[in-house]
Design a protein that fits this description.
This protein has about 325 residues and is mostly beta strands. About 15% of the residues lie in helices and about 40% in strands. The strands form five sheets. It has a six-stranded antiparallel beta sheet, with no helix packed on it. Strands 14, 15, 16, 17, 18 and 19 form a six-stranded antiparallel beta sheet that branches. A three-stranded antiparallel beta sheet has the order 9-8-11, with no helix packed on it. The model has no long low-confidence stretch (mean pLDDT about 95). This is Phosphohexomutase.
Length: about 325
């Protein structure tokens, strides 16, 4: 078996807050005017990624992992997670504010949902003027204050909001109350989990006049009521893997690519590249594959050496 870079059919999600940027900017195959998410790489039940090209075209990622777990995941990842793919990769388009929400940690998610928790990071790909995110509390809070402000529809008054621009990175540990604001397109990297507790949804209704379910009580135990520092500063040295996030669940580097880089991997982990600007190609085994802004590619752990070449901004993700 010759292992090669794997790209997948996007799994498109219609959302009440979604728009058309994933089509107009990233060229995703979208018909709806309310697509909020493109799941690029997923093994979430019911939303398993399908290979888009090559010898494995049409195959489910879970099937390939089951057949070649160490070759795809890497020896260290397989020893830690078995045949589970531990991360989920998305692009998001927020035409409106997302709901204010929180994700449980591993222990709580395991107890309640038999799931991973949901530590995540955001890379801001595009930001309209005055776009902002909501992250954490302005000052240390508590369950009583949270519930009182929720009841009085003043929750926003105790939450911190930050104006953002393209290139900003935010790392959100579980328990951090947050929302992506209107006018943002985001690359999101997270643990494999679809567990979200919705705290407040701005009293929005869908086309049938229904509000979305809130999870006020479930969130009480999940929330971190302390203030948090979420923005990550990072270097942007050309043709280098500049460290951005290094946590127990994933490592993310930023590569400003301008030319060619030879890459060597140990085989302990898969690598994922998300192209957030420009275009590049991967050269391997006398073959060459091309990628553009908005593409996401999984490099199986069995690929130990290859060359990336082009002019692009790339997020490099693996598990260390």
């Amino acid at each position: 078996m010759t292992f090669y870079p794997l790209q997948f059919e996007p799994i498109l999600k219609e959302r009440i807050w979604g728009g058309e940027k994933l089509k107009t900017i990233l060229n995703k195959p979208i018909a709806s005017t309310h697509i909020g998410e493109s799941w690029e790489l997923s093994t979430v039940a019911g939303d398993v990624s399908i290979v888009a090209h090559g010898d494995w075209k049409g195959s489910a990622l879970t099937d390939i992992i089951n057949e070649f777990p160490e070759k795809i995941l890497g020896t260290a990842v397989y020893n830690r997670f078995g045949k589970q793919f531990p991360l989920l990769f998305k692009y998001l388009d927020a035409r409106q504010d997302l709901s204010i929400q929180v994700h449980p940690n591993d222990a709580l998610a395991k107890k309640r949902h038999n799931s991973f928790g949901k530590t995540e990071m955001w890379y801001i790909m595009q930001a309209d003027d005055d776009a902002r995110i909501i992250v954490g509390f302005k000052e240390k809070s508590n369950p009583e204050a949270y519930l009182e402000n929720l009841k009085n529809k003043t929750l926003l008054s105790i939450l911190d909001d930050i104006k953002v621009q393209a290139g900003d990175v935010f790392f959100l540990e579980t328990g951090t109350v947050h929302a992506i604001g209107a006018g943002l397109m985001v690359a999101e990297i997270q643990q494999t989990s679809d567990i979200t507790y919705r705290l407040y949804d701005f009293d929005r209704v869908d086309t049938n006049g229904n509000t979305r379910e809130l999870h006020v009580d479930l969130a009480l135990e999940a929330i971190n009521y302390n203030t948090v520092e979420t923005k990550k500063e990072y270097s942007k040295n050309s043709n280098e893997s500049n460290p951005v996030v290094d946590c127990p669940y994933f490592t993310t580097n930023f590569i400003p690519l301008d030319g060619a880089i030879s890459v060597s991997k140990s085989g302990e982990s898969f690598t994922v590249y998300m192209c957030v600007e420009g275009a590049f190609e991967i050269e391997f085994d006398n073959s060459k594959l091309e990628y553009k802004k908005g593409d996401t590619v999984l490099i199986p752990a069995a690929m130990h050496a290859f060359i990336i070449n082009g002019k692009a901004s790339i997020l490099e993700i693996y598990i260390s």
